Amino acid sequence: QTVVTQEPSFSVSPGGTVTLTCGLNSGSVSTSHYPSWYQQTPGQSPRALIYKTNSRFSGVPDRFSGSILGNKAALTITGAQAEDESDYYCVLFMGSGIYVFGAGTKVTVL
Amino acid sequence: QLQVQESGPGLVKPSGTLSLYCAVSGGSGTRNNWWTWIRQPPGMGLEYIGEMHYDGITNYNPSLKSRVTMSVDNSKSQFSLQLNSVTAADTAVYYCARGVNNAFDIWGQGTMVTVSS
What we know:
The structure holds 2 protein chains of 2 kinds.
Chain A: E1 4-6, E2 9-12, E3 17-24, E4 36-40, E5 47-51, E6 55-56, E7 64-69, E8 72-78, E9 86-95, E10 98-101, E11 105-109
Chain B: E1 3-7, E2 11-12, E3 18-25, E4 34-40, E5 47-53, E6 58-60, E7 68-73, E8 78-83, E9 92-100, E10 103-107, E11 111-115
Parallel strand pairs in B: 2-11
Antiparallel strand pairs in B: 1-3, 3-8, 4-5, 4-9, 5-6, 7-8, 9-10, 9-11
């Protein structure tokens, strides 16, 4: 069974930088998995941030960036702001129209 | 500006069938896109249920495939989800979303479905 791994939580200071990762329980993440990232605050629908590893959706601030770091996909927030305190989910495309979500990373800004 | 909006019963009995609709407004309606269902149990993470292309092609999460049916009505600009033989484990907020570039860019506000007698 495919499991997408994410850190449970991260803390970052205002103005600081944090990098969240998205891995696989078996194998490496590559651009062929078309990693995408979503931000969700409590009680709200998820908001799309990144698609195809490193492309930002329209309206997403450029402090959010995506990449492949080693064998994982990564989301970096550079210059974190209070409003970035949210849950962040990655999604990987596994082929044949199948996507798998990670369990999410809770980011605290303090 | 394309928008999607879920609707359907908020309460379903165990062993029954969950039926939800997603209305698409703006843009070109349901045509020329993939449409996705995703759910989130209370206090938990997101789970991909499946996707449907406007021309009827479907792809389902293998863990739910035996119980899921998706359909699209292009004339009404809406698509639907049916989940059979539900249990309490199917209690969740259900989201519809548009699929584009192997991602989900436009999400509905979600609809809470509780499975209980």
